[in-house]
Design brief:
260 residues; 4 helices; globular; alpha+beta
């Protein structure tokens, strides 16, 4: 997994734009994210789907990072964002999210919850795969339909999008396609796992929750954490449905063993 992010949007909390508010949060998280490099956008070059986590710079935001530059916590007057480029287990990532939520809520006492989002971006690369049609056998054929429209016309790039509505105010936006280059920018503030600049298959999943009516629910760390856990379910389901056993056996499990 190349990039994972969590975001909670809240009613405007002016203290988060002040040195005092940022310092209070930093003091609680200093053992986890001791580096404050300054403000800047997250390492994503593509436009986000409608309703997705966009990671645009916000006024008065403060970013804190770990020494390895693989975990980031950003606080702004209307949002808190946790990012990682070294994702291993959801439980580990969720613990970072929980600590960031507790520190921020302790510092400013959020008034409510306006949105909760979880986004996973993966750039799948397989040696020898160069063109969109070469992904046959590695990626679910349902995502490769455009490569079979005409045997004389071979696409150089494919891109698709699907939106899923789930009970309880949850939605998941899926962006996918056979591309070249990168989506997650290695020149961004977080250190990105080194990969080639060649062909890859993008699976970009943004799962989010919005209130179903005009009422803004009261803020609760436990409620946000529980919502985040539920948001992961369609992400996991859609990712697993998008890949084949061949990809799992020949590529993904090999990558896991190499990093252990």
């Amino acid at each position: 997994m190349q990039f994972v992010a969590f975001e909670v949007r809240v009613p405007h909390a002016p203290k988060l734009a002040t040195l005092e508010g940022a310092t209070d949060i930093y003091d609680d998280l200093r053992d986890l994210v001791p580096i404050i490099p300054g403000s800047g956008p997250s390492p994503i070059e593509v436009a986000a789907p409608q309703g997705a986590i966009s990671f645009t710079p916000r006024g008065g935001q403060t970013r804190m990072m770990n020494r390895g530059r693989t975990i980031s916590v950003m606080v702004a007057p209307t949002a808190l964002v946790v990012e990682t480029t070294a994702y291993t287990r959801f439980e580990d990532f969720l613990e970072v999210v929980r600590r960031a939520l507790e520190a921020a809520h302790k510092a400013v006492s959020f008034a409510g919850i306006q949105r909760v989002g979880l986004r996973y971006i993966d750039e799948i690369r397989v040696e020898g795969v160069q063109r969109p049609g070469d992904w046959d056998g590695y990626i679910n054929s349902a995502l490769l339909c455009a490569t079979r429209l005409d045997t004389d016309l071979r696409p150089e790039r494919t891109e698709g999008r699907a939106e899923f509505e789930i009970d309880g105010g949850h939605r998941t936006v899926m962006r996918f396609g056979a591309m070249t280059g990168r989506v997650v920018d290695p020149g961004g503030p977080l250190r990105v796992r080194r990969t080639s600049e060649g062909s890859f298959f993008l699976i970009d999943l943004d799962s989010f929750w919005l209130p179903r009516d005009e009422d803004i629910p009261e803020f609760s760390v436990e409620r946000v954490v529980e919502t985040c856990t539920k948001l992961r379910e369609p992400i996991r389901t859609l990712f697993e449905a998008s890949i084949t056993e061949r990809l799992r056996n020949e590529v993904l499990r090999k990558e896991v063993s190499e990093h252990e």
